[in-house]
Amino acid sequence: MEHTISPEVVEIVKKFRNYKSLREKWAEQAAQDWDFGVLLKQWTKDQEEDLKERGQAPLVIDRISPAIETQKSILIARAPGFRVIGRTDDDVRKAKIFSDLLSHIYYVNDGDMVVSEVVEHQIVMGVGWFYVRFDPYESDGEGEIILESVNPFDVFPDPHSRKLDCRDADCVFISNMLTVDQAVRLVPDREKEIRALVSDEDSNYPGTLLHAEEDQQVWDEVIDPDRKTIRWIEQYELVSLPYYQIADPETGEVETVDEATFKELQKSETKFEHKKIYRKRVKKTVICGTLKIGTEYLPTSIYPLIPVFYSHAGNPYAIGAVRKVRGLQQEINKRRSLMIAHATSSTVPHLLLEKGVVDDVEQFEVDRARPGGVTEVNTIEGIKPMEPQPLPTALYQLEMEAKYDIEYLLGTFAQSMGSAREAHPTFKGTLAIEEWGNRRVALRGKALEYALKRVGKVIIDFIQGYYTSRRIIRIVNPDQQALEKPRFIGLNMPTYDEFTAEEIERINDVSVGEYDVIVVPGSMLPSNRWAELEYYMKMLEIGAIDKVEFWKKTDIIDREGLIRRFSEYSQLQQQVQALAEENKMLKSQYEQLRSRLIEARESRDVEKFKSTLKEMEVEERKKFIDILQGMKQQEKGE
Q1: Which helix (H) or strand (E) holds 610?
Q2: Which of 38, 173, 440, 498 could be stapled to 411 by a disulfide with Cβ–Cβ 3.0 to 4.6 Å?
Q3: 202 close to 186: Cβ distance less than 8 angstroms
Q4: By the 8 A CB rule, do 470 and 490 touch?
Q5: H or E element in which residue 475 lies
């Protein structure tokens, strides 16, 4: 039974077809650049056959993909460093939580691989796309924020957009071809309607005439003829939604609520002052074939599809690095093919034969091509070799210049790939040249950092809009350092009144607050590890850092064990120092007590001696008195 197609679906599909048709030229060029620079399909079938007829080989002397890989490795040498800053004093404490959440979401979504894919699309096809979405089925139904890359062939931006981040786009589409089973897994409650849709054999990939030497099958060239496909369309557009600022007349506190909440408050008897405002929100509309799946207003004003352009030309149809050096690569291939053909002609030169000199010409060609072979001829006078003209020396020089031009245009010279031909004789000079050489590539890194900043803002908006219930987040350190164990952060943890059991507040409530995201400048660019190690060694010598921080920058095999053992040794050393200090203190107390004891003994002996002297003095005085009395009695008797 056919369903009725709504006018809204007709309008959206019409706009999508319009965007798709206006993007066809860019898609054709991007497909050619991808085949040419990544898959090394650099000759068409007709060109290969034409070369073989002339005795030349369709060689591919690849100079593009090494330069692309080098540029890519420079841009994504390290993971980005996110920093979140609260706009008000109340948000400063929670800013650290958002920084941890950004790093956590980046880590669990394999952010390094996502960035790698985006940068490869950016360099080769001119634009790469980050995609942030919320999957409600993850984490046992609690939902998780997903960060991933999207194939540029599946993104259809507004052709009239002029900004580097497409913020001025009327809308942005993401669309691809799904099998019926894939569509049913996305919306299982609409299975019956989806299976009744008419199959669509459309494709986002335009295809090219370039031929793969090994007949590899890529992109949509591999298609199961028995599968039934349906186009899945997601439209993202900016809309303005009404909100109301509610002010409490007693406390003066202001709260912003949506229209539904405002209508509920109007029904109550609560008195309040209000003001109507408008906020921008991204409206997401999903269509499967001609069936509307649903509409959702995302909790952000930034498109969740964030572009990274290579060479922005004032519209979303940018060109990549391959398009700029494609002519030079074709020149190298053709010149090398000519050189190989000339070398072959010099080894086995062309011959002019008079009729009758050789009975079997075909057998003669086979015999003369065999080293050390014997060929029977009727006469030698009728054979005249035609030596090829020597190639000019400038031809070889032109190939070297073409290789240099490719490196110069892409900003990735041979030295960045480890070549020692042009290396500076001193270590410091090599470091300086490497730093200067990375400056042009670092300019591309600025665009990537800006895109990641936009990604961080969307993720924060999603955290505040979707992480509204209580949940525990496990923060894992990607470096797996021994001293940095996984941490657990509780979000939206309610606290209750002890007597009424009513919720008082929420600890780490991430649904409120305003924050800014900063991607640490240069955090993704490479650094020479020997120079970095030397720098950290100097910091260690002057005492600016400790040994643990220094060891983190080394390549010691058992680095974690060394840090752990050093930590244990440091703890034991601290314990020994503490015991030594305690022993020193006890010794000091002992000396003080001993001194006091000696003083007490001396004082006691002095007092005892004084008492003895006093007793002796009394006895002597008594004896003296007795003597005087005896002398007086004796005088009286006489």
Answers
A1: helix 559-637
A2: 440
A3: no
A4: yes
A5: strand 471-475
| Top-confidence residue, 42 or 377 | 42
Structure tokens that stand for 84 in this block: 């979140």
What is the tens place of the pLDDT at every residue in 480-500? 444 456 677 778 777 766 666
Global pTM value: 0.77
Average pLDDT, integer, range 166-178: 93
C-alpha dihedral over 610, 615, 617, 623, to 10 degrees? -170
Token pair, residue 172, equals: 């942005």
Q: Tell which wins on pLDDT, 196 or 525.
A: 196
> Phi and psi for 230 in degrees, rounded to 5?
-135, 140
Per DSSP, the chain holds a count of helices (H) and strands (E) of 16, 19
- Kindly state the helix (H) or strand (E) to which residue 62 belongs, with its residue range: none
Structure tokens at 431: 């470091």
Residue 156 CB coordination number (10 Å): 26
22-27: list long-range contacts, CB under 8 Å, 24+ apart.
Answer: 22/159, 23/156, 23/159, 23/317, 24/206, 25/317, 26/126, 26/317, 27/153, 27/204, 27/205, 27/206
Please list, residue by residue across 423-432, b when 16 or more beta carbons sit within 10 angstroms of its beta carbon and e when fewer do: eeeeeeebee
Tell me, what's the pLDDT at 412?
80
Residue type, 360: D
Q: What are phi and psi of 391, to 5 degrees?
A: -75, 140
Contact predicate 567/485, CB 8 Å: no
Residue position matching structure tokens 């921080």? 549
Block residue for tokens 């030698």: 380
Question: Distance between CA 424 and CA 408 in Å, rounded?
Answer: 18
Higher per-residue confidence, 379 vs 263: 263
